[in-house]
Amino acid sequence: MTRLPARRPEATAPVAGRPDRWAKLDLKVSPYVYVAPFFVVFAVVGLFPLLYTGYVSLFDWRLGDDTAKFLGAGNYGELLADPQFWNALLNTVSIFLLSSVPQVVVAVAVAALLNTNLRLRTGFRMGVLVPYVASLVAVGIIFGNLFGVNYGLVNSLLEFVGIGRIDWQADRLASHIAIATMVNWRWTGYNALIVLAAMQAIPPEMNEAAMIDGAGPWRRFTSITLPMLRPTIIFVVITSTIGGLQIFTEPKLFSAMPGSDTGGSTGQFQTVTLYLYQSAFDNQRLGYASAIAWVLFLVIVIAAVGNYFITRRLAR
Amino acid sequence: MTRRPGFLVYGLLVAFVLGSAFPIYWSFLVPSHGNDILTDKVPPLLPGGNFFSNAQQVLDTIPFWHALLNSVIVSGSVALSVVIFSTLAGFAFAKLAFRGSNVLFVLVVLTMAVPTQLGIIPLYMAMADFGWAGHLQAVIVPNLVSAFGVFWMRQYLADAVPSELIEAARSDGCSMIRVFWHVAVPAARPAAAMLGLFTFMQSWNDFLWPLIALDQNNPTIQLALEQLQAGYYVNYALVLAGTTLATIPIFLLFVAVGRQLVAGIMQGAVKG
């Protein structure tokens, strides 16, 4: 108020003190008005449903039935003794590991390649981002075709090089690899760009100094680049944990019987979210599905925190 | 760093980009020939002439244009709403002093990590109660705000808007909302465009919630594709023609704004 005192006197001259009070109120209240929509909407469509899921999970709540029976921890007891749940959890973790580990390693490698003085720099950057643009459902369908048992291109290639056909659908590990391949294909380039940005933020003097000290390219990469990338790698790992443990679309579309939610004939690639969906909307057990949601939530929190510490140690 | 890299770097990168593009190209190649190339020992690598007849069959099988319009409406309104609310909140967090702002901002950051997808069951129950199930508002309303968006706009506006400018406008008698409109909004434009683009694409690809909230008569493009695939015998020439048709609009968008998308991802990485 003191910076530009008498520039527009007609505007600052208060009419009986009222505009001044209005300005004060405006100053005080406006920030809350601006942040309120986010918090209100988030509370209603994000936080409340999550908490209410906990409430529903205490009941034997059927789809389209208003007389839910209170079970207490009953659904959780059943869940912990449910082999299908453990199978789904194991599948989810397996697919997650098969997708996240190679993804981070390859993303760092691609970022290192992109972090050179390339011709057509923007072209290459856009090129690695192409899979990110493809829609998830399309990706699921395309890879379902590529990994087809009888007529899939992948098996044709494998046969051509003498390895022989693999049943990507029926075999448990093979189906996990196929699904992880979709995830990796889609996200590696995207993550490479994130890592590339972090690489470019490393001050060039650090590399120059190391070069003068006689450090070769590999030594510079492991002693300077990797440690400097640590926060970014932690960020990438944690975001891929939160997304990876909720994986749904890829296994749902990979099924040989499209439209089914079983994740293969014996549930060999059913993930937790797919089981949640099946429990709620095929078996119509909303309470049980809610218990699955809450347990998955806990698993995600534990995995994210665990990942944080592991990545911190590894990338030291 | 000033030396041009050797053939090895280019070779590896070209291989990676080709690998990235191949599955999409394949989904065009199959319908351009027909199902018989799936049994070929060595499939042709150049497209044939059957794409349009397969595409026509897609249009006859599923409500393609209806689904496309639905997706545009849903993704467009979600993107618009996220941009507006994020810019408002981001401006307040970046530039306005108010009690509790730090605590509230920490809350925003924490909510970024909350997997809201796990709240689908109560959301479904609510939509059924409201009679919204099957209608587009059922997929729009739950996505009206984004914690990431607020975070993103705050980080951007903190640097983009000089505090002196706000003070000057205030002392000239500008109300807060006019400051927002005439100072913050013009400065926020690049970041807002980026946020809108990302939100649009994310919403465009959303599958789990639309699958629950909508039905076959009123699908988004992703649901329509899934419908096309459902069935015991999958006619891949038809289904892949559908994925190609659905990819074309988003691919055109990518050609137009891919450069900004790359910049946006890299910018978000440094700041986030």
UniProtKB/TrEMBL annotation, chain A:
It is a multi-pass membrane protein. Belongs to the binding-protein-dependent transport system permease family. The keyword Transferase does not apply. The lineage of its organism: Bacteria, Bacillati, Actinomycetota, Actinomycetes, Pseudonocardiales. Signal peptide: none annotated. It holds the Pfam family BPD_transp_1. It comes from the Bacteria. It comes from Kutzneria chonburiensis. The chain crosses the membrane at residues 31-52, 88-114, 126-153, 173-198, 228-248, 286-310. This is Carbohydrate ABC transporter permease.
Automatic annotation (TrEMBL), chain B:
Residues 68-257 form the ABC transmembrane type-1 domain. The chain crosses the membrane at residues 7-28, 67-91, 103-126, 132-153, 179-201, 233-257. SUPFAM superfamilies: MetI-like. The keyword Phosphoprotein does not apply. Its main location: membrane. The keyword Membrane applies. It is found in: Cell membrane. Pfam families: BPD_transp_1. CDD domains: TM_PBP2. It is a multi-pass membrane protein. InterPro entries: MetI-like, MetI-like_sf. Keywords: Cell membrane, Membrane, Transmembrane, Transmembrane helix, Transport. Belongs to the binding-protein-dependent transport system permease family. This is Carbohydrate ABC transporter permease. It comes from Kutzneria chonburiensis. The lineage of its organism: Bacteria, Bacillati, Actinomycetota, Actinomycetes, Pseudonocardiales.
